[in-house]
Design brief:
The chain is an all-alpha fold. The protein has 16 helices and no strands. It is globular, with a radius of gyration of 20 Å. It is found in: Cell membrane. It is a multi-pass membrane protein.
Length: 418
């Protein structure tokens, strides 16, 4: 790969990869479509929950239910991915998600009530379960569709499309649609999922031979590889802690925006759009930053930026400050993702990629439902003594402190082989 000389070179390489690789272009398009719908649901689902109840724990339960499958299902999902045609699995998972979103659409069209929050929680769990299979399969199939030297570019583009569609476009669009009717964002998501499934069906490639061992033997093989790779396990633990913290603040973020900053749905969507712009910027510039600064400085810089960003949100009194801080947090998160996902895709043997990825994500993403519950519980626990505003600021300040501790650990223990 030639050295990246600047934005023009980066943009040219981005276009070239999309233009020359039909299968990657289809996967990229499918991902953009699903993430557009997901971005709208990311705002509409908690907003629908907030119409049913103002209880932070009940709202946190909806967020936790959507992430709980990463704790319960990520490990067996990896075996399923390695034993399946990943193209078919992605398309089927998107169609299943479309059916679940259709059920949420029907619920949104009915008169929301406090009791319906638990039905919404169950549907959020099912939606998350289908997402576990879809995301694992999509990440596993990517090395079969692009060259090894294109992995950083491909991952960066996939992450940037995810954030551009899912955060920059989706939330403000959802804010506008909610003004016309809370059900509308779910209808658009349903259509996007069906179109995405069609794109994936058009991918043509020769898949690796599926794993044919018995389920438990195949699972133990993946666990053995993960246990033998100490650095991979350390990365998974750092990711798990950071995702626990991120989900804790995301869970209460909508209440912080409403009750502390007084934002409307459109205003909150705008904040999320600025946040997404940070993610897009981080995704696209990550290959350039890695080449210019080096792998390890970028890894440490990402964790430091999380600490700074969370502290800034926790102390903010203006939407612009909150938006700027979230821009920094998401840019750093995408830099971390491009580094670690590309490193894993090279390090893990192809025949084990689905299983080891799923075990990695069990550690890295399984903490998210616990973080969601912790965020809501922290607010409820602190509110009687500190008041509503300080209780809503507390999760951000606690997350900043924990990220500072993570940075110290990373400086001492994370050394990736380049």
């Amino acid at each position: 790969m030639k050295p990246l000389g600047g934005f023009d070179t980066l943009a040219g390489m981005t276009r070239a990869l999309l233009l020359r690789n039909r299968n990657y272009r289809l996967l990229f398009t499918a991902g953009a479509l699903t993430n557009l719908g997901d971005g709208m649901v990311a705002l509409a689902l908690p907003w629908l929950a907030s119409l049913m109840t103002r209880d932070p724990v009940a709202i946190a339960a909806v967020a936790a239910a959507g992430r709980l499958p990463w704790l319960l299902m990520s490990v067996p999902a990896g075996v399923i991915v390695d034993r399946s045609d990943q193209r078919r699995l992605i398309a089927q998972a998107d169609m299943l998600r479309a059916a679940i979103v259709g059920a949420i659409l029907i619920l949104a069209l009915s008169a929301p009530s406090a009791g319906a929050i638990w039905l919404l929680t169950g549907l959020a769990f099912l939606l998350g379960a289908a997402e576990v299979l879809r995301d694992n399969a999509a990440q596993t199939i990517l090395p079969a569709l692009v060259r090894q030297e294109d992995l950083e570019q491909a991952n960066g583009q996939m992450w940037s499309a995810e954030q551009l569609a899912g955060q920059f476009i989706g939330p403000p669009l959802a804010g506008l649609l909610i003004a016309a009717g809370i059900a509308l964002p779910f209808g658009v998501d349903l259509a996007a999922l069906v179109l995405a499934a069609g794109c994936v069906w058009l991918i043509r490639y020769t898949p690796d031979a599926p794993v044919i061992q018995p389920f438990w033997h195949a699972l133990k093989e993946g666990v053995a590889f993960m246990r033998s790779d100490r650095m991979l396990l350390r990365l998974a633990i750092v990711l798990g802690i950071s995702n626990f913290l991120a989900t804790a603040v995301i869970t209460v973020q909508i209440l912080f925006a409403q009750d502390v900053l007084g934002l409307s749905p459109a205003g909150y969507g705008t904040v999320l759009s600025v946040e997404a712009l940070g993610a897009v910027t981080g995704s696209l510039l990550a290959p350039l930053a890695i080449r210019r600064l080096g792998l390890h400085p970028c890894l440490y810089l990402a964790i430091a930026a999380w600490a700074i960003g969370y502290a800034t949100v926790g102390l903010s009194n203006h939407p612009a400050t909150m938006a700027t801080a979230l821009f920094i947090v998401l840019a750093a998160a995408m830099l971390w993702n491009v580094i670690t996902v590309s490193w894993r895709q090279r390090r893990i043997p192809p025949q084990l990629l689905g299983r080891v990825n799923s075990i990695y994500r069990f550690f890295g993403w399984g903490s998210m439902p616990l973080g969601a519950l912790a965020g809501g519980a922290t607010v409820r626990l602190l509110e009687p003594d500190l008041g509503r505003e300080m209780a809503l600021r507390a999760p951000f300040l606690l997350a900043a402190t924990c990220c500072a501790a993570l940075l110290i650990y990373a400086l001492l223990r994370l050394r990736l082989e380049e």
